[in-house]
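User: Just a sanity check before I run the rest of the batch. Below are the structure tokens for the first item. I only need the designed sequence back.
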């Protein structure tokens, strides 16, 4: 098996595309993945984003070869790998748990897979990988002598040095502090661009997905709810789940009361909310419309003019200072609690709980959804714990170590 694995998992010239064709995974009593179609282009940084139980971890396990689909096909670089083992797939995984060999130096950890496959110049390639993650100066140290962030970089170097056609990232930054996590987000993106591999990043962290990925797929209940560029998904969500999960949204539901060639008006609590037709998924009947909190402006007095949607008066019930902005919660009769993010651009007067205010936004920032919030359609059972992925990867490495 070792020889077969070596021949299959050689150096990839570049990343390979990944295709999931009608993939389903059913367990006794529940369905984890439901008829999933997904195409990830070669050389891209793709994020699969969703909450616990959405099916993203099961998808990762299927691609890694640690689960078999109930139906459907998995193709890497156009080759059907559905019935191959994890050892036979040109795939490496970087976990939140680093799984480094404690008795080996950093250089030995990175070069391990290369030496196991008798790759020429293993040490030179390992040093180049450490240069890539800016850790050449710790090559002679042991993992216990490194910080968590440095160990994560070593794990990344060990994965990248093998030049897998597809690199799976399983919440790899979750154990890092906020500052280091943001630094690593940018470095991961730079590394992916430099080495040209295909990255599939599985995460529940919206900021992480939007910072690094070229394309984000938001997963819900075993299906892809919406997919596209991060900015497109944020600015124009199509469902209430995406609108609420990817950032925050103020959502209002009402009847379409009027329309023109370019806009429609939705009546909510006696106020006409104008939405461009090309930003709305449904144009008649009962519609849920939304606006992001940072698009909403807070006013002390009712603003004049007809070029903005205005609601109120309402009363500030909470004001939370977060440094770059202040988050307000405003109770508006007929609209409920409305969230406002006001950037702290001056030392001027800020609203306080109890203040009466009005809210407004530009119609071009509103969007209309396909569905309505708070409509229950059932839940999937939570994913298999990703710890089993780490155990499987560790066992594979230890078996290779014993053989060598």
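Assistant: Here's the designed sequence for the first item:
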């Amino acid at each position: 098996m070792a020889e077969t694995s070596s021949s299959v998992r050689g150096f990839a010239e570049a990343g390979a595309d990944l295709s999931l064709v009608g993939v389903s995974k059913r367990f006794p009593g529940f369905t984890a993945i439901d008829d999933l179609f997904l195409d990830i282009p070669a050389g891209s940084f793709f994020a699969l984003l969703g909450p616990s139980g959405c099916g993203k971890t099961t998808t990762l396990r299927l691609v890694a070869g640690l689960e078999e689909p109930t139906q459907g096909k998995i193709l890497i670089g156009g080759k059907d790998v559905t019935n191959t083992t994890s050892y036979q797939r040109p795939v490496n995984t970087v976990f939140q748990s680093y799984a480094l060999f404690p008795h080996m130096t950093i250089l030995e950890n990175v070069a391990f897979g290369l030496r196991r496959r008798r790759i020429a110049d293993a040490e030179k390639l390992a040093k180049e990988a450490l240069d890539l993650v800016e850790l050449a100066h710790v090559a002679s140290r042991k993992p216990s002598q490194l910080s968590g962030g440095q160990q994560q970089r070593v794990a990344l170097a060990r994965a990248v040095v093998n030049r897998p056609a597809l690199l799976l990232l399983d919440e790899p930054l979750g154990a890092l502090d906020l500052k280091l996590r943001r630094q690593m987000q940018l470095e991961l993106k730079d590394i992916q661009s430099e080495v040209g591999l295909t990255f599939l990043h599985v995460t529940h962290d919206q900021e992480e997905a939007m910072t690094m990925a070229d394309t984000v797929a938001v997963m819900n209940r075993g299906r892809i709810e919406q997919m596209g560029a991060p900015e497109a998904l944020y600015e124009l969500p199509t469902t209430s789940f995406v609108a609420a999960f990817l950032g925050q949204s103020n959502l209002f539901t009402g009847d379409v009361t009027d329309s023109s060639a370019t806009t429609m008006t939705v009546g909510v609590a006696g106020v006409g909310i104008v939405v461009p037709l090309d930003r709305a998924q449904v144009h008649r009947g009962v519609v849920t419309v939304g606006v992001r909190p940072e698009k909403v402006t807070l006013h002390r007095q009712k603003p004049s003019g007809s070029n903005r949607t205005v609601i109120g008066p309402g009363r500030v019930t909470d004001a939370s200072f977060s440094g770059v902005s202040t988050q307000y919660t405003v109770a508006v009769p007929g609209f409920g609690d409305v969230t406002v993010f006001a950037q702290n651009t001056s030392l001027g007067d800020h609203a306080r709980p109890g203040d009466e205010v009005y809210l407004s936004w530009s119609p071009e920032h509103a969007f209309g959804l396909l569905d309505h919030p708070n409509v229950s359609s059932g839940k999937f059972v939570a994913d298999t714990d990703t710890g089993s992925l780490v155990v499987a990867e560790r066992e594979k490495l230890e078996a290779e170590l014993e053989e060598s």
